[in-house]
From TrEMBL:
Keywords: Hydrolase. A motif (HXTX 1) lies at residues 37-40. Pfam families: 2_5_RNA_ligase2. The gene is thpR. The lineage of its organism: Bacteria, Pseudomonadati, Pseudomonadota, Gammaproteobacteria, Aeromonadales. Hydrolyzes RNA 2',3'-cyclic phosphodiester to an RNA 2'-phosphomonoester. HAMAP family: RNA_CPDase. It comes from Aeromonas bivalvium. The keyword Amino-acid biosynthesis does not apply. This is RNA 2',3'-cyclic phosphodiesterase.
Length: 176
């Protein structure tokens, strides 16, 4: 079994984000730079067969590249996660997250949650919301990945099992 989720990697903005966070009185325990991502769909514990099905689904998925402004902070009190995220985001992001969640649901995965709040968790064990100036980062996402989450004595680590380019569905050129 492996613990899986689909997410956008942050690539070149992960370092500026942790640098920004670490200069501020940001609550909680900082997530390491290497673990930063924007979750698309949480899947949970998957068998080898389910993992293969998710890899196939990821390879079939289409979505144009996405530009997402990370311009607000937020806090999930139950999860004690403090995060940055967009005030507004492209509809294609919601469509992609929903499609990936449904791929999981069709094979018995996911946590049953229907809503989607795009966010990048910057810290955990946060007992309060961040009270910082608004962030101003631009995520230009050109790929998405299926990640495996592994618990180690040094903490959790997220390994991309596969990544696919964000590309729109090819236009039908046959005029049909
Ligand atoms: O970094 P975030 O918070 O977006 O919170 C976990 C993390 O996402 C989330 O999956 C990502 C990789 O672990 N996660 C863990 N357990 C979860 C659950 N039961 C969950 N998301 C929803 N339901």
């Amino acid at each position: 079994m492996s613990r899986l989720f689909f997410a956008l990697p942050l690539d070149e903005i992960s370092l500026p984000l942790v640098t920004w966070r670490d200069r501020l009185p940001w609550p909680g325990q900082g997530v390491p730079q290497a673990n930063l991502h924007l979750t698309l769909a949480f899947l949970g514990e998957a068998s080898e067969q389910q993992r293969e099905q998710l890899l196939a689904a990821g390879a079939r998925q289409h979505c144009p590249p996405l530009t997402i402004a990370l311009d607000r902070t937020g806090w999930f009190p139950r999860a004690k996660a403090a995060w940055v995220g967009p005030r507004q985001w492209p509809n294609e992001l919601t469509v992609l997250a929903r499609a990936l969640r449904r791929h999981g649901e069709r094979i018995g995965l996911g946590n049953g949650e229907q809503g989607y709040t795009p966010h990048v968790t910057l810290s955990r064990k946060a007992g309060e919301a961040p009270a910082t100036p608004a962030p101003d980062f631009l995520l230009q996402a050109t790929r998405f990945c299926l990640y495996q989450s592994t618990s180690t004595p040094d903490g959790v680590s997220y390994e991309p099992l596969a990544c696919w380019p964000l590309r729109p569905r090819a236009k039908n050129t046959d005029g049909i």
